[in-house]
Every structure is written in structure tokens, then in C-alpha cells.
Write a sequence for this structure.
């Protein structure tokens, strides 16, 4: 197995997230911080989990606070041409957003020769997700989100990558 696999995964996730935000939503995302984490769980106001399996397995969690969700939701809905005022659509819109980014990431891994299969997204808003550090390793990437044209701060997105140990 590749000894630098974790680093390649984190860098691929980071690059794909930034590119997706710029190409699809026309906003800027800067990787503010990243690294391994020993948190035994996670809980955010808005969390979408995307489990995957294949050559390596784990989950991607797209997390944000309420402010970021409030600012990004209309942009995401507009991109997907969805009426965002319909009740109960927020979780579906965010799940589709996470799904689109994940497909881009998985396509990158397919090109690199890794076979991965994505499972359906799951909304884990306000839920505590435990992480077993004996069987899993965790990386957190924090992105600063901004709309330069409108000169507006849109918040921070946290992408948490949990990989099963071999």
C-alpha cells in the first residue's frame, strides 16, 4: 500500500473542493488549515456524511455552522436551479451539493487507479458522530469561503475525512 496515501487523499479532497466552489458556485474557497485529528467525534449544525468503500474505505463529512449554511444555501439552490424557499428542501440541497463534490473527488481517484464506490448521503445535522480512533484515522480540512465579487464573507466549511485503518 502507498505510504503517502492519506496525504494524497487529503490533498485531492482539498483541491477538488476548491475547484468545485470556483467552477460551480463562482465563489472562492481557501484551505485555511488541515491536518490529522484525534477528536473522538464530531457534531456540527449542518453535517452531510458520504460513506465510501473500495480500495480504501471511510467517510467524508461536509460540515458547516448555521451562518455558513444560511449564506451558501441560496447559492447552491440557484446553481442546481431549485426553489430554495420550499420547506424541508435544505437538507436535500446540501446532500446533493456534497454528492456532487464527492463524485468529483471519486473521479480523481478513479483516474489514479483506485476503485471506490460512494454510498447515498446521510444528513447528520446536530447529531454526535463518534469516531473510533483505534480503527479509524481522521483528517480535518477547514476552508474559508468568500464571494469576492460581492465582497462578502460566507463562512467556513469543514471537510472531515475518516479513513478505516488497514
Amino acid at each position: 500500500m502507498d505510504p503517502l496515501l492519506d496525504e494524497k487523499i487529503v490533498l485531492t479532497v482539498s483541491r477538488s473542493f476548491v475547484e468545485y466552489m470556483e467552477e460551480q458556485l463562482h465563489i472562492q474557497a481557501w484551505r485555511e488549515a488541515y491536518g490529522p485529528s484525534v477528536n473522538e467525534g464530531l457534531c456540527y449544525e449542518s453535517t452531510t456524511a458520504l460513506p465510501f468503500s473500495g480500495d480504501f474505505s471511510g467517510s467524508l463529512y461536509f460540515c458547516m455552522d448555521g451562518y455558513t449554511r444560511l449564506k451558501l444555501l441560496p447559492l447552491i439552490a440557484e446553481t442546481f436551479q431549485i426553489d430554495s424557499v420550499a420547506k424541508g428542501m435544505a437538507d436535500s440541497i446540501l446532500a446533493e451539493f456534497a454528492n456532487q463534490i464527492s463524485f468529483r473527488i471519486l473521479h480523481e481517484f478513479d483516474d489514479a487507479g483506485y476503485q471506490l464506490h460512494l454510498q447515498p448521503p446521510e444528513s447528520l445535522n446536530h447529531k454526535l458522530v463518534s469516531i473510533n480512533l483505534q480503527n479509524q484515522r481522521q483528517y480535518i480540512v477547514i476552508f474559508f469561503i468568500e464571494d469576492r465579487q460581492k465582497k462578502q464573507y460566507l463562512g467556513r466549511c469543514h471537510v472531515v475525512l475518516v479513513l478505516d485503518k488497514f
Remarks:
- The domain at 5-164 is CATH 3.40.1550.10 (Chemotaxis protein chec).
